Amino acid sequence: MPNSLDIQLQNQSTSSEIYAYVTGLSLQQNAGSRVLIKSDGRSLYFPANPPKILQPLAEDCAIRLGPPGSPPVTVHCPQMAGGRICVLNPTDANAGVDFTFAEFTLNGHQLFANISYVDFVSRLPVALSLRDGAGVQHVSGMASDGLARLCDGLRDQAGRDGKPWDKLIVPDKKGGGPTTPLRVLSPTHGNAAGASFAGYYEPLVEEVWQKYHESTGTKLQINTQAAAGVVEGAVNQGGQLVLGGEAFGKPNTADILGCNSGPFVTGPSPTRNAIIPRLAAGFLRSSLADCPDHPSPPETHYRREPTNHYARLLHEVNLDGKGYAFAYDDVQPDGGADRSGKVNSGDPRVFVVTVGGGNAYVGDTMPL
């Protein structure tokens, strides 16, 4: 595994004003510190703790990609751990900035990168390509009209079920006016846009609790895909779902959308920690009520109400159907096709990140 990697960045949008910022936690020099790569695509900048919020960087870290059709810009990246950035507060000074991101971690074992919609969807699509000694991995992302198609689907769904899917659409108040979308928030953050989904999943939870109650004789099976193997269980007389000796209370809508609260909080038990992603994914995809064996295949996802139509539509508008629509969207049956939009390798040779969706495609080839 190399100590560093050259990342190629390419503008496939219609704008000549595209800048990249590469940031993460350094794993080598000043290990554990926040680091950015300067505008030259090579030098490192370790920012000091600012005296207050919204302070400008002391160094120029805006890497210009050049106009559409320009050769890719190469950024020399040391080992670092990544993380996502999002702006949810509509009064924040940066709320109107048109931005997108891809996550990656480069460490001593591998490069792992993905496109993520866990928090929001930008109107700037991102695609990833990775070549290693075994071949090419490619995540297509959305075409340039992907956000518009997603918004159309959300508006249509809101008209069908009366839920605030359309309120997840954040308008571009600066450049395009109130009817032009800037981004779409995940329903996990719906309250930031006045879109409350309180109580939405509770009917499904009740149905699941009734189906797998021990009095019915129907068992729920979870393949932990870990040391615990396949665990099964049912809802006991105390109202808890017991799987592999681990007891789970009823989740509410916020627990299901966020996947990290209520019964989905991880802890010291490896068995519980392996059950949680698969159980949470089954609820969010609304497949628990129909399928007793999990993880269930994609054809069982989002087929009944209530379900996460944000996630359903995202997979539909991504050209290859891939992308993290929620935190555990990498859950899949053994041998199943990846749905999460990730690329990874312990032997990365060429890593390309393209933005804009202008030449988005499906297939295992490199864009350069």
TrEMBL record:
Gene3D superfamilies: Beta-1,3-glucanase, C-terminal domain, Thaumatin. InterPro entries: Glyco_hydro_64, Glyco_hydro_64_fam, Glyco_hydro_64_N_2, Osmotin/thaumatin-like_sf. Pfam families: Glyco_hydro_64. Residues 1-357 form the GH64 domain. This is GH64 domain-containing protein.
